[in-house]
Amino acid sequence: MERTLIADIIKKTDEKVRIFGWVNTRRDHGKIVFLDIYDRSGLAQVVAESSLSGNLHPQDVVCIEGKVAKRPEKLINPNLETGTVEIQAERIEILSKAEELPFDMGGKDLDLQLPTLLDYRSLTLRHPKVREIFRVQEVVIDAFRDLLKKKGFTEFQSPVIIPQTAEGGAEVFEVKYFDTTAYLAQSPQFYKQIMVGVFERVFTVNKTLRAEPSVTTRHLTEVTTLDAEMGFISSWEEIMETVEEVIKYILERVEKECVKALNYYGVTIPKVPQSIPRLKLREAQEIIFQRTGIDHRRESDLDPEDEREITRWAQEEKNSDLVFITHYPVSKRPFYTSEDPKDPGYTLSFDLIGRGTEWLTGGQRINNMDLLLERAKERNVDIKKSELYIQAFRFGLPPEGGFSFGSERIVMHILGLANIREASLFPRDMERVDVRLSTLK
Amino acid sequence: MERTLIADIIKKTDEKVRIFGWVNTRRDHGKIVFLDIYDRSGLAQVVAESSLSGNLHPQDVVCIEGKVAKRPEKLINPNLETGTVEIQAERIEILSKAEELPFDMGGKDLDLQLPTLLDYRSLTLRHPKVREIFRVQEVVIDAFRDLLKKKGFTEFQSPVIIPQTAEGGAEVFEVKYFDTTAYLAQSPQFYKQIMVGVFERVFTVNKTLRAEPSVTTRHLTEVTTLDAEMGFISSWEEIMETVEEVIKYILERVEKECVKALNYYGVTIPKVPQSIPRLKLREAQEIIFQRTGIDHRRESDLDPEDEREITRWAQEEKNSDLVFITHYPVSKRPFYTSEDPKDPGYTLSFDLIGRGTEWLTGGQRINNMDLLLERAKERNVDIKKSELYIQAFRFGLPPEGGFSFGSERIVMHILGLANIREASLFPRDMERVDVRLSTLK
Question: Smallest Cα–Cα separation from B32: which of B60, B53, B14?
Fold first, then answer.
């Protein structure tokens, strides 16, 4: 007999079916056992005689044959897609036996501390509330890809192993590369700029690796990053307009396709108005000062409490959960960032702040080679080592800019997760790579 | 004035337009200069007075305003999509000036030796014959993703940094990971098997990194790999059927969407019959022996000439450019490969051979933990270190299998490229990471 996906049994009342899946829960009622069985499509109740269900327990992998029967009216479960029917088991085969579970996986929640959640990752990922996080990640990445393709962007594969660390910083991983040393890419920045010379508009979905020496709730050493870069921009504001389109489309798709996840976490999609409010950093600092009396007007960046306060302002005054902060000082942005000719000392750059924290960063880049080399020199960036990057400018690059954001971080903020590790299938940080590193020593 | 994409000028005869792009070629005819200008959409001829075109030369980035004019009948270029019109320039602005090119980029071919092709990668990628290779790569990856999503597969993000090298081999890169050592993933194999426990059917598009100590035309140290894994298979043949669907769909999409690339390389899509021929390794060796007298019937694998010979057989006898070779000996396949109960000593595994070389590899996996641990032990694989992998089996995994192939390799074989480095935007090998490593010492 062919397999029937569990979601499809409601179309097969009174027919005999064969389902495959995992045991979710088992409830014994004397001679009768109720089993909840799930597969990738859904969950169904199976009724079996206790002789048939033997010692079946949660996570056992089974093949069950039986008849689909309508449930009596009062036993219908309206919260379950297959809740109008059940399967009366005639044959149960165990395909793979699971060990006794270390905790209950059958409830709506999985109330575990983070270390346990991660120590048992291959098991905890199977809990629907955990699993659905990664459907959101899939939809976020798909939506990013889908929208940009429609806008004439080409996807490219950016390398992970790089020859130098021109973008600088100590937080770079070293790789033993035959008899020399190579590094892991912290961002595809240089490559996406090179690719503007090839396809004009490009994007890449990429692992970025950063030796973050901190163990905060917001940092991982390995992140799946979404990067876009576009040439022939009419102005730097075109980049922000593209970001608006991308973010709105991502949120729309999540709202439509990730209903289960939004319900599990009891959240709604962030509010985004027609146009996301835009404030220069100094304007934001002035607003914060006016609202709170806290004077950060001479700071070169927002601190976390500033980010939360400016979000409150955007929510209250602009009915928006998101706000762009622009014009960070030259010294706070990478050397390749364009300065605003109308506002010297400040850059054509932006961060998108969402629900109190940074979601995304972007800006216009310098496309004049001489100026780029000068800026690199001022900042002590040994850019000459990045030969292919310089080469792209030697042979003509148009005015361009782009943006970048981490898929884990945006998923974390959409679902309101407390820790970014929950938004990574196999989170890596300075203490853990699958297993706790302390156990490896 | 708004930008008009070059491909759209044919709809704007007698109108004034503004185009942005790069100078491809310049031909001086006394007071008149003919410029070929291209952008991401296409290429057009611009006619300008020499006073207007100044010292413009190839790869300069320009903005040109002018009138779109019908060409006289005899000057129509049928090989160019915009060949019925030209732009009569009224204003030319240089947005970015390029250096003198080290070689001619204006011809249909780019006849360079590989080292030069790679030393000037940021420039050579702009040549249409080179650029189109990467549209093929994009379509291959998109088609893989598209088809599998339709078949109920979920995409997941597999990690690059891993704690151990359980799959073994010396060809693994070491990473200095804080005060310990981590490794770079040579394949997402263990993770995709874990994910079968979560989503049943999964795939991942991933960078895989391998310290290949050879400098052949077929090996890179960094590859973009396409991996799929599926649970609840009815038999291992279901995996091959899925491969057939995937490969056919990829080739169909390339045929339809990559006409330019196929024309540049003068190739056609490989022939694939309704069902790709399947031979056990021993049957293939017997056929080769019968056809050539070369007796490799006791070898445990095909050598390169065997692969070419069995391809010739498939072409001649089965009208197929592709052939599956199955049932490699247990010793030649990874420890987690299922043995065929009906053919002891041989595995439920396959390679797909295309146009004389291996394209893809796959098979059914062992899903019984005790057997898996036993097989690992026999092969001296220290699998206990891969705690999360074992955990997936401890808590129940269904019968499953999958397949894996490199996007660069399939692109190389579709287009008939001589060297896999041509199919990688920024190829990495033991001698080069963007720049020749010898120059870094």
Answer: B53
